[in-house]
Amino acid sequence: MSGVGPQRTAAIAAKVEAFVRDVVVPYEHDPRRDHHDCPTEELVIELKDKARAAGVLTPHILEDGSHLSQQETAIVLAKTGLSPLGPLACNTAAPDEGNIYLLGKVGSAEIKERFLKPLIEGRTRSAFFMTEPAADGGAGSDPSMMQTTCHQDGNHWVVNGRKAFITGADGAGIGIVMAKSQDGACMFLVDLPDPAIRIDHVPNTIDSSMPGGHAVLTIDNLRVPADQMLGNPGEGFQYAQVRLSPARLSHCMRWLGACIRAHEIATDYANRRMAFGKTLIDHEGVGFMLADNMIDLKQCELMIDWCAEVLDGGSLGTAESSMTKVAVSEALMRVADRCVQVMGGSGVTSDTIVEQVYREIRAFRIYDGPTEVHKWSLAKKIRRDWKAAQSEKGKP
Question: Smallest Cα–Cα separation from 44: which of 130, 131, 173?
Fold first, then answer.
């Protein structure tokens, strides 16, 4: 991590915010959408070109290739999230942002040049192949259930299995594939498309902000050169944790920005709309909902900053990112729901982004680990900590 200080961070964030509000927001009704209602590649490329020209493409990566601190990244990524299209335009969207972070942390010089550089430059998209179909008994929130296998064959590894809900796989140029060997989990970098990776189905989902949707696919005798493995055999889960804790946090950052914008739209509506002789904001029920939004948004901001500080301190931050992901996703769901409610019929139309933000946040409560899984993980930690404390006291 490389800190640039509060003044430069504020300048980067202000530049990003101006770009998103002035340039990106007018694209929110652009008809270039696929049959899943996701932005098309043409639209994404056009937005990235505009961000590149404005000097806000991949704004959390500095000119020397270093990464803003997590606390600084939080400020910048929230600004990209002010529009659902903002992270795509600024190249801070999932899964690319998380993959950029991982490769920057653990990639070899060769891997950084071949795979990381084009991601930072916004010249391609990537996908992270970990989750597997539940019907196959595969890995979801429990990665130890992974069914995808790999074995070494000369100077290549051969991968076989199925994956599910792989965000952005359709149209991606780079893939990070997880599989298990006799030594444990492994992680590979692959060029896409590859004939050995077949997309079987891209389901329609409640969210629609990520190009390529969330694919179900089959990996059939994929051959990967040995030098495209990240690290060594058996280190895959270790690297997954390096990626997942910051990735959970950056999801919180982006969706905080989206809910700030939804709250702005609902606030504007409540101050203009008349009902029963006065504006909606002057009706206690509506005013209190917007007040609750202010409280939840501030609490989200504080949780994100706290978790970012932990990660900046060098901790893996697994428990902290779990707590933050639960608290922020649940609070933002309340914010998005109130925004819809304040706006009434207008809140469920596509005339504004409010209804889309509601859908996206509903999905956010599930991906990167649903609330219940994170709470279960935290409960196990509480149990471990209690037992450790009892042991130190000499109690059974």
Answer: 173
Q: Does domain 237-387 have CATH number 1.20.140.10?
A: yes
318-343 vs 371-392: helix axis angle to the nearest 10? Answer: 140
Show me where the domains of the chain are located.
Answer: 6-93, 127-234, 237-387
User: Which residue type does 378 have?
Assistant: L
Complete DSSP assignment for 168-185 = T-TT-SEEEEEEEETTEE
Phi first, then psi, for residue 127 (nearest 5°) are -145, 150
As a whole number of angstroms, the distance between CA 315 and CA 33 comes to: 40
Q: Tens digits of per-residue pLDDT, 140-180? A: 888 889 999 999 999 999 999 999 999 999 999 999 999 99
Cis peptide before 193 (omega within 30 of 0): yes
Listed residue (243, 217, 241, 239) closest to 230, CA to CA: 239
CA 72/CA 8 separation, integer angstroms:
10
First to last CA, the chain: 43
User: Do 131 and 143 contact (CB within 8 A), yes or no?
Assistant: no
Question: Do 97 and 87 contact (CB within 8 A), yes or no?
Answer: yes
pTM for this predicted structure: 0.95
Tell me which DSSP letter residue 344 carries.
Answer: G
Cβ atoms of 133 and 164 closer than 8 Å: yes
- CATH architecture type of domain 127-234: Beta Barrel (2.40)
CA 221 from centre of chain? 29
Matching fold, domains 127-234 and 237-387: no
pLDDT in tens, 40-80: 999 999 999 999 999 999 999 998 889 999 999 999 999 99
pLDDT at 117: 97
